[in-house]
Amino acid sequence: MAKKTPLYTSHLQAGAKLVDFAGWDMPLHYGSQIQEHHAVRQSAGVFDVSHMTILDFSGPDVDRYLQSVLANDIGRLTLGKALYTCMLDPHGGIIDDLIVYKMAENTYRLVTNSATHDKDIAWFNEHMASFQVEMVERRDLAMLAVQGPLVQQKLSAFIPPLFQTEIADLPVFHMKIYDQLFVARTGYTGEDGYELILPAEQAETIWQRMLAADIQPCGLGARDTLRLEAGLNLYGADMDESVSPLESNLTWSVAFSPLERDFIGRAALLKQIAHGIERKLVGLVLEGPGVLRNHQKVIIPTIGSGEITSGSFSPSLNKGIAFARVPVEIGEECVVEMRSKSVYAQVVKLPFIKRGKQTFLEKRKNGAVT
Amino acid sequence: MNSVPKALKYSKTHEWVREEEDLITVGITDHAQCMLGDLVYIELPDIEVTLEAGQECAVVESVKAAADIYSPISGEVVEINESLLDNPQLVNEDPYGKGWLFRLRPFENDLAGLLSADAYSKQVASEAH
User: Fold this and answer.
1) What is the pLDDT of residues A262-276, one digit of tens each?
2) How much is the ipTM here?
3) Interface mutation target, options A291, A294, A336, chain B, most CBs of B under 10 Å
4) For burial by CB atoms within 10 Å, which of A36, A117, A121, A233 has the most?
């Protein structure tokens, strides 16, 4: 029996095509995932992300505990601030990536992936023994992501009048709680916007008010192309336990200082740095026609080969784009083995798109390898 | 429910065929475009190429998947729908009209191996289970 979010019936009413995602019945799209993608880049869209795992941690040892299990340092957080981080195993492999919010002293909220739910909970429990920490899973809550350049003009659809100014001024990666409504200026699209966490029984009302304000309902299809353009990794595709953050374009999210903070995986990462990192995650842009796909082979002549971890089509650029894990020596160009042919692709720094604009220069027009 | 026009013939691999005097037009069914989702890239056969029945002759790619198109009958390609190269979503919007793929001059006027609308509908229904 598939799990359903509190908005399941609303999705059916809105004409969603549902798919199984990690055991959940989730909307793939509501008619056209490309149109939904454009809505988020040009206007505003809303995603039901209630399948994500919400975990509240508290207790006298919670700071020390999270500083031990997370690769980024929650010691950097002031009240109301958020941090992106990986959770690593002792070999430096990525168990999951997540966002941690400091809601109060000794109280943190973590939002982790749904596909990794069981192993995350097991991992958190396994490492809790020597700490006075309580972990509560919040299945009583729903989560909505409302994203896009026009979200600011539509705040009245989902924020009480009294708080609208404060929410408009909320800095990126900060959160506020109003009564039972948790609002964070975070997201997974590369656009301005908010993630809302609220009691499940209130989700339907706020969802309908958003749709009435011309905020486009968006499914997992658009979520994937938006995050890909924005250079944001997907756990299970671009990273897993077999790779470290240093090979996943996430070195910035690992806090090696202070030196005395001995988080799980630290020793392994330092060893990797001492030995030299061999692979990295880069962006690929296909100049010719076609769509890049997961697991296609990437060849860098005279240097070696790699693999596409997430390949798709960029609706904003109208081109095939991908993340690929490749030897660090890669230059500005590589060859991708597609279905029936080999084609050139340009290697670019991520993201592809920032706040709706292309970030890289096109080097040359490439085509099939002759 | 996806539309399956009675006047057309169908292949098991989700192409449709329309007889127009001495030519036939080929496209993909409403069911096929719905399963694929938004199309973003279409590769069509070259004009004057000769195709065997069942031969791979085109590729349609959506954001999530690529699908081969098989020629429903043998013949020579006489026309391709060039508007799809810039606007592949025409197949999603109008699979039996503006979203046609190519036209063939058949070698034999024999559509007996193809499915009727009813038979194709039954096949789609059985695939759903």
Assistant:
1) 999 999 999 999 999
2) 0.85
3) A291
4) A36
